[in-house]
């Protein structure tokens, strides 16, 4: 009986720790934005070289985080979790960070699962997508419901300039007709994923010879 109780307590502790870790926001390689820029600035102020304060969490920033963590006796994993953030910034991670970061990662990860799914005009499911059917389906998996058509999706959320693009942003292009006629999901490093008529769901460069001149704008809905 005692062994059984210890087993149950152990399971509860493991479950509790896991749930807490999943609920906590983190900053790590691939993240972008003003919060990351603040982390970089603070690292530089403390003498840990995070490079340019550009809001892009790359390898140099990760190395600076590791050095900071080692100096504070923390696990040097290069990830700014709750303990590291508090030690570095002197406050807790903003509450809004938890849900938004998790949603962005989930959207990008989910979109990648459908690489190669064929293009179907009017398609809205994993058996075949068109461009706006793909973006609508992916965001719906995270509880975010977009209008059906690309030009309608271009009206939701808030405008984002090209230089401020972050993973999870919707990006829009003019292809077969004037105005917005193609939508995709920005995944970082100048790349986006979308359902293309020639290759199905695929990743492309934002500034390729085809997509670059056709880019119209971006919207952020997270």
Automatic annotation (TrEMBL):
Keyword Hydrolase appears in the UniProt entry: yes
Cleaved signal peptide residues: 1-23
Coiled coil ranges: none
Residue span(s) of domain NlpC/P60: 101-222
Keyword match Hydrolase: yes
Keywords per UniProt: Hydrolase, Protease, Signal, Thiol protease
Xref: PROSITE patterns: NLPC_P60
Superkingdom assignment: Bacteria
InterPro entries listed in its UniProt record: NLP_P60_dom, Papain-like_cys_pep_sf, Peptidase_C40, Peptidoglycan-bd-like, PGBD-like_sf, PGBDSf
Family assignment from sequence similarity: Belongs to the peptidase C40 family.
Protein name: NlpC/P60 domain-containing protein
Naturally occurring in which organism (per UniProt): Sporomusa acidovorans (strain ATCC 49682 / DSM 3132 / Mol)
